[in-house]
Amino acid sequence: xxxxxxxxLLLAAPALAQPAGRIETAVRLRDAALAANPAWPLxxxxxxxxxxxxxxxxxxxxxxxxxxxxxxxxGLTNIREEAFPITVWERGQEQASIxxxxxxxxxxxxxxxxxxxxxxITAPVSCFDNLAAxxxxxxxxxxxxxxxxxxxxxxxxxxxxYGINGAVRRAGPALAAQKGAAAVxxxxxxxxxxxxxxxxxxxxxxxTAPIPAVALALPDAELVARRxxxxxxxxxxxxxxxxxxxQSANVSGEIPGSVANEVVVLGGHLDSWDIGQGVFDDGAGVxxxxxxxxxxxxxxxxxxxxxxxxxxxxxxxxxEIGVVGGxxxxxxxxxxxxxxxxxxxxxxxxxxxxxxxxxxxxxxxxGEIGAVLAPxxxxxxxxxxAGGGADxxxxxxxxxxxxxxxxxxxxxxxxxxxxxxxxxKADRAQLDQNVAAWTAAIWLAASDDRPLRTK
Length: 455
Hints:
CATH class of the largest domain: Alpha Beta
Radius of gyration: 23 Å
Number of helices: 15
Distance between the termini: 34 Å
Oligomer: single chain
Order of helices and strands: HHHHEEEEHEHHHEEHEEEHEHEEHEHEHH
Structural class: alpha/beta
Strand order of the largest sheet: 1-9-11-10-12-15-13-14
Shape: elongated
């Protein structure tokens, strides 16, 4: 860092007791993490030796065992596993074909969806351009039919198009069920044109029985839309998932701070969907945040300089099926002074923006963070309205401050929730940039004493 910039940052800080050399240490940690960190070997190990980690299954349990062993090896302490109940959903057979043709459709059942009989169902298809059109449709256009819901998701750096169109998957099947549909097909929430459907969760409110619901690969969704526009369309669908009561858990480990009862949380979610390897979503986030903590731990071991606030890595379970782990964690820790939290859960590509949602007195901290991260090509978001990640949301609702390190999502939805979510898609240099950013930002927050909670 240039001396004048460093001096300006130190002079601009409020008159609170700040440990000497905070910013210099952050710069040193940033550069050390960029040069060497364990994120890549962690990601390879998780991918190759655990694999996909569907919520509530034995595979997710093996992931927790892997996480605890990794935390111990990296020098974290107070390693805990906190269990909570879930409904375990597992896919069965999946087939779909257009009657009167030789078209076999590429499909993936949606998590939480219901099942067809083993022999499947055959029904006419009603097509809707978007969710609003389905809402407006009379029951006569829906009842007893297979419903196809289209949308127009586009490529965006910040993932905003996913947010705009996501209700098609999350709420569309329930709406169709309430109007008497036999089953639902949706255009995948994705931006690639491979014949890879994008799975994901859907939900049915109390009193609405789950019906079969599947996502179509984009080329197949466009085939269905064209056939609908041309005239009558009939599809045979087989989808036989099962559901049962089960259990998941969150895993955490710490670098203890020098003061009691102030905690900074970072992490990712440990579960993944079953049809890929769970690399972009969210093995990368797990590896990035573990590696950031490992870099800080190595610094504290070398210098004897502990952070003021405890740094806690949380690897949440069962995010994919409705942020169940994030909600359980917030409830279990609602009395704890978790002052700041952030989650890495948007792939493995470079961070381009840093944002916050903290108390006004804590905003200057993010000026310091922004200055230290600027050499990594990261720009500030000055709005102080950041989200921080799905699992952080329940903590933020209780008043925890939010740190957002926003990753470039330009290609994220090409592989998100698909069989293409594999290790070859991760770029090591971009992964290292993530680790460097998380390391510096977390150190600065944990060595600070300004209030960050919003309530």
